[in-house]
Write a structure and sequence with these properties.
This protein is of the alpha+beta class. It has one domain (about 1-205). Helices cover about 35% and strands about 35% of the residues. The protein is built from five helices and nine strands; from the N terminus they run αββαββαββββαβα. Strands 1, 2, 3, 4, 5, 6, 7, 8 and 9 form a nine-stranded antiparallel β-sheet that branches. A hairpin with a 2-residue loop joins strand 1 and strand 2 (about 45-50). The longest helix is centred in the N-terminal third of the chain and has 22 residues, at about 1-25. The radius of gyration is 17 Å and the shape is globular.
């Protein structure tokens, strides 16, 4: 009964934030300090190659800037990195939740939770941790929303923060950061978490605060 009440509470909160957002002015466009493509292709033990999307996919996402890469460490196992940046969000030009995109591409959720990543300031930020499966393949997916110096895991909190910022800051700029890697054992999973912490450090100063 409590879980059902929590579900409806979150659903109503998200609906309210979405409706409110529709009628709010979306403020000025906030540009990145430099393009996402300037994120290093190599850092630490990881070396990346760009994996750009087709034009039709970019158009559907309606992003203002994005980065899609595959990094490999010393063991050669791939880690995918996707960053989408919106300099302002509107009704039809807003962040697409991985919870919707992953099933749409054939990946089904197996488990969901949160984990803490070390931030550049020495603190900890909670991000989403998903395990998804397609056939016999399993992947760990980490993702979060990043804007105005905040790291937010919850889609509901991200929506509410966007509405509040639209009112008080006249800004709705935000970024989605998603990392995915095949699950091949505990050591590989730890490596994915370590990679995510490094990405968070590299994005400090790039995503507008």
């Amino acid at each position: 009964m409590i879980e059902k009440g929590r579900f409806w509470c979150m659903s109503l909160t998200l609906l309210g934030a979405t409706v409110g957002f529709h009628f709010l002015p979306h403020g000025r466009d906030i540009n990145l300090s430099r393009p996402l493509a300037t994120l290093p292709l190599s850092f630490g033990a990881w070396h990346g190659v760009d994996a750009p999307f087709e034009d039709r996919v970019v158009k559907a996402l309606a992003v203002d800037d994005y980065l899609s890469r595959v990094y490999r460490g010393e063991d050669g196992a791939p880690i995918g990195l996707y960053i989408a940046y919106y300099k302002s969000q509107r009704t039809n030009e807003a962040i697409h939740s991985p919870q919707n995109c992953l099933p749409g591409s054939g990946w089904q959720p197996v488990s969901a939770g949160r984990l803490g990543l070390k931030t550049p300031t020495g603190g900890s930020a909670m991000v989403n941790q998903y395990v998804v499966q397609k056939g016999l393949q399993r992947q760990m997916v980490l993702y979060w929303y990043q804007s105005h110096g905040r790291i937010i895991a919850s889609e509901y909190q991200a929506k509410i923060a966007m509405v509040v910022d639209a009112i008080h800051l006249h800004r709705t700029d935000s970024a989605l950061v998603r990392i995915n890697a095949p699950i091949t054992g505990t050591e590989a999973d730890d490596r994915t978490v370590q990679f995510a912490a490094v990405v968070l450090e590299k994005l400090d100063g790039l995503i507008p605060k």
